[in-house]
Write a structure and sequence with these properties.
The complex is a heterodimer of chains A (about 425) and B (about 90).
Chain A (H helix, E strand, L loop, with lengths): L4 H9 L17 E7 L3 H14 L4 E4 L15 E2 L8 H13 L1 H5 L10 E5 L2 H16 L5 E4 H7 L14 E5 L3 E2 L2 H14 L3 E3 L4 E7 L2 E7 L4 E8 L5 H6 L8 E12 L7 E4 L4 E5 L4 E12 L7 H14 L8 E11 L6 E4 L5 E5 L9 H14 L13 H4 L17
Parallel strand pairs in A: 1-2, 1-11, 2-8, 4-13, 11-18
Antiparallel strand pairs in A: 3-7, 4-6, 5-6, 9-10, 10-11, 12-15, 12-16, 13-14, 14-15, 17-18
Chain B lengths: L1 E4 L3 E4 L3 E6 L12 H8 L8 E8 L4 E8 L5 E6 L6
Antiparallel strand pairs in B: 1-2, 3-4, 4-5, 5-6
The chains are: A alpha/beta (about 425), B mainly beta (about 90).
The complex binds flavin-adenine dinucleotide and zinc ion.
GO molecular function, one term (chain B): sarcosine oxidase activity
Protein name (chain B): Sarcosine oxidase subunit delta
Organism (chain B): Pararhodobacter marinus
Chain lengths: ~425, ~90
């Protein structure tokens, strides 16, 4: 069913009794050309673009829980293209362009809102670093505006500009940055893929990867064995477990990242505000909740809930930056399992097992990447060659040391990115 | 979460700094080759369950090897890295 204003109106008149389930619930077939492990944002967009851009039809997405139950439905929804290093810049730039056409492409409202992102700085050195980053963004063809303190004050009058520890000197403004509704992105791609004939199979955990003579031949699942000629591992925080089924060890360590939301308030924060020195960022959802978060809990973990010291730290940083939020009551907090890579950048590549592909290492920035990641993995699987904006996301860059993309320059420790 | 430091007893998690998996204890020889260094610096078993990793206790400045569970956050043992048998 195509969605339109007219359809909503007609359904309204008919008591909304004519809406249909948005995707099928097929039984798994014994064999597919392509099996994708993981029904998060990246797995779903990969399936969609394999079908849409490359005309492939015999595809299944296997999800151990429900579609969108992983990080794609747990993130703080920031979409931006303000990366610095070649390799990352062109990829996130491509992704943002796909976001800008996504609702028309999917015929689905993902509530993409380009409300602008402001990264604050607090010293001359940081200002210089942001000028450099802004120039890199402009050179990439994206947008960046340097704001001085008064420029920030005009947009964000509620900040505490004179705080003793980190007085605000200015900010780097990225007008095309913003947010989107995370669940809707998963649902939109799921609906799009289903309509192109992709089987979306939920409650189907992959428990083994079958190989013969160095080639992948299929997977074992809780719903029986499934043969496949190509298999893609797109399991985010669970990537290491899935890769181990094929005898591979990945350069990934899993960590918890927490997020928080307050009760719904009237519009008060119009942008996405990022306070890097305090490890704090915030935006306001369309429902009115203040959505904010901070850093990792810092130690390897698969518990999808956080520890209290980081809760305290995030609240303190928020109060430092904008004391007014002390009045808001926190409603919920949660955690997601992040696939942290040793340089903070992702991997979209083949593996040593022929026909087996890996897409992981998204750290805490993989939501904005959902469109381009699927686009590029689909390209690699369908054509056999990496897409030109994702050529840098090689699995072997850690082994060889060539082409590392460490945006923050923090070295090879997984949790420092 | 609390860790029991062999020097200081049970202490709040905030006194400790996490470094990474216990793989960091097995530093390869400088000429051991790319695979050994890749494995040491980057590749991880990354288990969902029992694991061994390295923590630093800031007050007494000791490096500790911790056996714990990454799913439940239960701590099984904490032992000093110094003087350990290889
Ligand atoms: C609190 C938080 C805030 C974040 N904020 C942002 C942000 O503001 N901007 C941004 O760009 N990014 C953000 N991220 C990161 C982003 O959410 C992730 O990088 C991205 O969602 C990961 O890709 P995914 O959507 O495919 O993952 P997921 O949705 O986790 O998908 C992986 C799927 O694989 C399934 N799976 C695992 N193992 C198996 C198996 N054996 N068999 C079958 N299925 C399996 C899982 O059930 C899961 O559904 C944030 C993350 C968190 C947790
Ligand atoms: Zn101690």
């Amino acid at each position: 069913m195509r969605y339109s204003g007219l359809r909503v109106f007609a359904q309204g008149l008919a008591g909304n009794r004519g809406w249909k389930p948005v995707w099928r619930r097929p039984e798994p077939k014994a064999e597919y050309d392509i099996v994708i492990i993981g029904g998060g944002g990246h797995g779903l967009s990969t399936a969609y673009y394999l079908a849409k851009n490359h005309g492939l039809r015999n595809i299944a997405v296997l999800e151990k829980g429900y579609l969108g139950g992983g990080n794609v439905g747990r993130n703080t929804t920031i979409v931006r293209a303000n990366y610095f290093l070649p390799g990352n810049s062109e990829f996130y730039s491509h992704s943002l362009k796909l976001w800008e056409g996504l609702e028309a492409e999917l015929n689905y409202n993902v509530m993409h809102s380009q409300r602008g992102l402001i990264n604050l700085f607090h010293s001359d050195g940081q200002r210089d670093a942001f000028v450099r980053r802004g120039n890199a963004m402009l050179a990439q063809g994206d947008d960046a505006v340097l704001l001085d303190r008064e420029g920030v004050r005009e947009k964000l009058p509620y900040l505490d500009f004179e705080q003793g520890r980190f007085p605000i000197h200015g900010g780097l403004y990225h007008p095309r940055g913003g947010t989107a509704r995370h669940d809707a992105v998963a649902w939109g791609y799921a609906r799009g893929a289903d309509r192109l004939g992709v089987d979306l199979i939920q409650n189907c955990e992959v428990t083994g990867i079958d190989t013969r003579q160095g080639r992948v031949t299929g997977v074992q699942t809780t719903r029986g064995p499934i043969r496949a000629r190509q298999v893609a591992m797109v399991a985010a925080g669970r990537s290491s477990q899935v890769a181990a089924m094929a005898g591979l060890r990945l350069p990934i360590e899993s960590h918890v990242l927490q997020a928080f939301v307050t009760e719904g308030l009237k519009p008060v924060i119009d942008h996405v505000v990022s306070f890097g020195m305090g490890h704090f960022y915030i935006s306001q959802s369309d429902k009115g909740g203040l959505v904010f978060g901070g850093d990792l809990d810092f130690y390897a973990s698969y518990a999808a809930r956080g520890n209290l010291p980081m809760v305290e730290h995030v609240m303190e940083a928020g109060m430092t930056l904008m004391p007014m939020i002390g009045r808001a009551r926190v409603l919920r907090s949660w955690g997601g399992i992040m696939d942290m890579s040793p340089d903070g950048s992702p991997i979209i590549d083949r593996t040593p097992v022929e026909g087996l592909f890996v897409n992981c290492g998204w750290n805490y920035g993989g939501f904005k990447a959902v469109p381009a990641s699927g686009w590029c993995l689909a390209h690699l699987m369908a054509t056999g060659a990496p897409h030109k904006v994702a050529e840098g996301f090689r699995l072997d860059r850690f082994r060889t040391g060539q082409g590392l993309m460490d945006e923050e320059g923090t070295g090879s420790q997984h949790n420092l990115h | 979460m609390r860790l029991s430091c062999p020097c200081c007893g049970p202490r709040d998690r905030r006194e400790f700094t996490y470094y990474g998996a216990a793989d960091y204890l097995d530093r390869p020889a400088p000429d051991a080759g790319l695979d050994a260094w890749d494995s040491y610096l980057h590749l991880r078993d990354n288990p969902a369950g029992p694991t061994r990793d390295l923590w630093y206790h800031d007050p007494c400045q000791s490096w500790l090897q911790v056996e714990r569970d990454t799913v439940t956050h239960a701590i099984h043992s904490v032992a000093p890295v110094a003087g350990r048998r290889a």
